Amino acid sequence: MEDKKRTYSPDEVTAIVASALRLQRKREHVPLEDLIEIAAELGVSRSAVEEASTHLATERDMEHAREQWRARQRRRFCGHLVAYVIVNPFLIFVDSVTSGGTWWYWPLLGWGMGLAFDAYSTFFPDPDEVEKGARQLIEHRDLKDNLET
């Protein structure tokens, strides 16, 4: 009888329902209409569920865009690294043939410093840059989608 009188805070309700769903796992996806119906039983309005659903979709899109931006940065860095590895031995060869090896280390050093900065910004990006890049990807995708329709 004591359990029926117990009440829960909104955070506890969220945790209990999330835990119960993880334990049950009878189906992978719940349609929005079912979610609205379940929420109504808890006194949550349809508009609140729809707003939360839209917010979650936006967050998913943003996280996907962040990953796309990071992958694009890694590909760009790999291209930069490949160019460095291919071009610099050629420069060393040209320098050794033409002047006996007097200047090859300057482009190697200068380009290497640029490559080091590029590596740092690729593998340890500024969070603001990631957000900015992700927003640009989303805007570009939305613009492309609008042009196609």
The amount of helix comes to over 70%
Number of helices: 6
Number of folding domains? 1
Instruction: Decide which structural class fits the backbone.
Output: mainly alpha
* CA-CA gap between termini: 60 Å
The overall pLDDT, averaged over residues, is 90
Radius of gyration: 27 Å
> Oligomerization state of this entry?
single chain
Describe the main β-sheet briefly: none
Overall geometry comes to elongated
Helix and strand succession?
HHHHHH
Number of strands: 0
β content, as a range? under 5%
Q: Low-confidence stretches at least 5 residues in length (pLDDT < 50)?
A: none
Question: Your description of this structure?
Answer:
- This protein is mainly α and 149 residues long.
- The protein has one domain (2-148).
- The chain is 83% helix and 0% strand.
- It is built from 6 helices and no strands.
- It has helices at 2-5, 10-24, 32-41, 46-98, 105-123, 127-148.
- Helix 4 runs antiparallel to helix 5.
Provide keyphrases for this structure.
elongated, mainly alpha, 149 residues
State the gist of this model.
The chain has 149 residues and is mainly α. The chain has helices at residues 2-5, 10-24, 32-41, 46-98, 105-123, 127-148.
Topology at a glance:
Blueprint: H1 2-5, H2 10-24, H3 32-41, H4 46-98, H5 105-123, H6 127-148
